[in-house]
Specification:
With about 120 residues, this protein is an alpha+beta fold. It contains three helices and four strands. Helix 1 crosses helix 3.
């Protein structure tokens, strides 16, 4: 383990994300059928690791207990969904399936967290 404040902050962010993901994924799998919401592919215990949880509003912190912001998608459909938000470098535009923009900003407070970590050391 390193004493570098940046490494500590990044490791903490990764741990927090993994804990949060385990929570909402487990809940989504209890609430929703084990079927991809786009292609209709069915899943069972042997391939359940290929079924992911997509946040409809792209905010990974918006996890209502009724699951209304979640959609179970297979790896391929989930990747395709997020690919819709990739910029088109030739035209300088961004493809959006809907008019809503992603609101999740995982590194929004990184500078503040780094400063706090540095102040502690």
């Amino acid at each position: 383990m390193t004493d570098d404040p940046i490494d500590r902050v990044v490791a903490e962010a990764i741990r927090s994300r993994e804990i949060r993901e385990r929570g909402y994924r487990a809940q989504s799998l209890k609430l929703h059928p084990w079927v991809c919401g786009r292609c209709g592919r069915g899943f069972d215990q042997s391939n359940l690791h290929e079924l992911t949880v997509h946040h409809k509003d792209h905010d990974h912190d918006n996890n209502p207990p009724d699951g209304s912001n979640w959609e179970n998608l297979c790896l391929y459909c989930h990747d395709n969904e997020h690919g819709r938000f990739v910029g088109d470098t030739n035209k300088g535009t961004v493809n959006h399936r809907t008019s809503s923009n992603a609101s999740h900003r995982p590194l929004a407070d990184l500078a503040q967290r780094l400063k706090q970590a540095q102040d502690k050391s």
